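INPUT
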Amino acid sequence: MQVLDGQALAKKIRACIKEEVQRIVQMGKRPPGLAVVLVGDDPASQLYVNMKEKACRQVGMYSKKLLLPADISEAELLDNIGALNEDEKIDGILVQLPLPNGLNEHIVNENINEDKDVDGFSPVNFGKLHLGIKGFEPCTPKGIIRLLKEYGIQIRGRHAVVVGRSNIVGKPVAALLLRENATVTVCHSKTENLAEYTSKADILVSAVGKPHMIKKDMVKEGAVVIDAGTSKVDGKLYGDCDYEEMVDKVSWITPVPGGVGPMTIAMLLENTLEAYKRHVLKNTDSQ
Ligand code: NDP
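OUTPUT
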């Protein structure tokens, strides 16, 4: 068994981004900018937002954090997003999900300028992903594909089974695996006899959020296991897959923590840098 070390790869990617941002600033240009919007005070969301803001500053990007009350109206929230769409220092906008009850995330995502949608959740970017047109790819799925490629794992022609069908992880990762020419099966909570599918996977991607629900007897000998799930139980983080139990059976596996999570943040920075380049280029072209 070998470990797919997301922590190490993310560190390498962040270092490259940092160098590029330094070069940009040394040329006298403004740094790329990311706005992170947090609505309400959910502790897990606060933690994620702080991690993203810190990662942004560490690579020398400009970061703006907007903390909005949970009882904000949809109109007010959209006004704030509208202002960020217009803000010349901001290249990427991320609204931390889930939103408090009463706020519709689809409407919010629809209102983020597609060129600043570094999370890739707007209908335009989501559509582009499925059409095979270049847009912003959601960070966790993009990070998963990068991890597989970096470690030289063949995707083409292999049977990939994705457990979970959310718009954030499951569906987009399935679309990306399909684009890489895997044969893809998507499972979800209504799937009957999950093990029948998972045990046939050459590449198994789990994005459910139920600690250790995937056991050794549910995976194929020599499979590649990507565990995006994260659940906290008594302060300890667990993946969906029982890592310790299956390490000797699989060929590659991501640890939790230290696998998919760090890659998500690295891809967010990469998308922000990409958004900056498009933004600067667009402004140069229109002059
Ligand atoms: P959601 O709750 O939106 O989706 C969970 C999915 O799992 C659903 O599609 C659901 O099916 C499916 N599911 C639930 N129970 C079962 C079951 N018993 N068998 C098979 N499928 C099941 O979660 P997210 O996609 O947002 O997140 C999934 C996990 O990934 C979470 O642990 C989250 O914390 C983690 N995550 C990690 C990130 C990272 O950077 N590491 C980033 C984003 C998420 P159905 O559609 O039928 O309800």
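end of record. The longest helix spans residues 260-285.
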